[in-house]
Amino acid sequence: VRLACVVDHLGSFKLAWIQRDRSAILTVGNHVITRNNRIGVSHDGHRTWYLTIKDVRPGDAGTYMCQINTAVAISQIGHVSVVVPPYIKDEMSSRDVGLLEGMDLTLACSARGSPVPTIKWRREDGSDIHLNHTVS
């Protein structure tokens, strides 16, 4: 991920990149402050500053801000969303079950992902399963 911040006439002021959700200062000027080695900062030599995040992870999602240290801070905000493919958490989901007609059955399915996946129950032949109630 690469976020850009365009600044005219920075002069002697410094630009900092901040991860707002964590109130964490990531960079100041050309220097990386965070210990996260996936974070980088660069400048095009003119007016654009870039924050780079390598090997993006779900925890990198959130609001980022570039801020100039003027008397009244000037800032721009950007948002990073991380898409995580849906997956089923096997250890929290039901296995094959055998039961007699008329018995109650409880099935569990736990799925994760971003955005949050929707779970739909179907029979092996693809036909719908009509539930008496919905479980979240």
UniProtKB/TrEMBL annotation:
GO terms for cellular component: neuron projection. Gene3D superfamilies: Immunoglobulins (2.60.40.10). Residues 1-81, 86-136 form the Ig-like domain. Pfam families: ig, Ig_3. It comes from the Eukaryota. Keywords: Disulfide bond, Immunoglobulin domain, Repeat. PROSITE patterns: IG_LIKE. This is Ig-like domain-containing protein.
